[in-house]
Amino acid sequence: MKPLYILNGPNLNRLGKREPHIYGTTTLAEVEEMCRQAAGQRPVVFHQTNSEEQLINWVHEAIDEGAGIVINPAAFTFTSLALLDALKMFEGPVIELHISNIHKREQIYHRSYVSMRADAVIAGLGARGYAVATAAILDILDERASEG
Ligand code: CA2
Hints:
alpha/beta; 5 helices; 5 strands; about 40% helix
């Protein structure tokens, strides 16, 4: 069974340790565990990086080996056409995820390049958004498999 790729961009390694009023107190290690629970039998490749190049390389890996992508691109959401181009090459479902509600925040957080490719966007559910996104992408994969 092909794995789900759950990819996280810059600064998210600090999750649970900074700005808890915006991002909560759940750590990235706890998020990873939540995703693995939500994925059940489906294997999960879970990564975080502060490097745009690395994030793109993992999208390339998912193009060859992944069933679906859940991505919190963090600040690259608003800056990276290269990440958007890489995601456009991926044929499976893509869910863009943000812990905070980016639309409730300053204008610079309102224009997402990644949303131009994402099949769905989840924002503002806190860390539980990862479990919701994982469950949703499994549903989408089941739906696509039953459509043949
Ligand atoms: O809400 C999200 O998940 C974000 O993608 C997080 C990004 C931010 O640039 C996006 O606008 C929304 C990263 C925030 C900075 O990194 C932190 C990580 C943990 C704790 C505090 C900050």
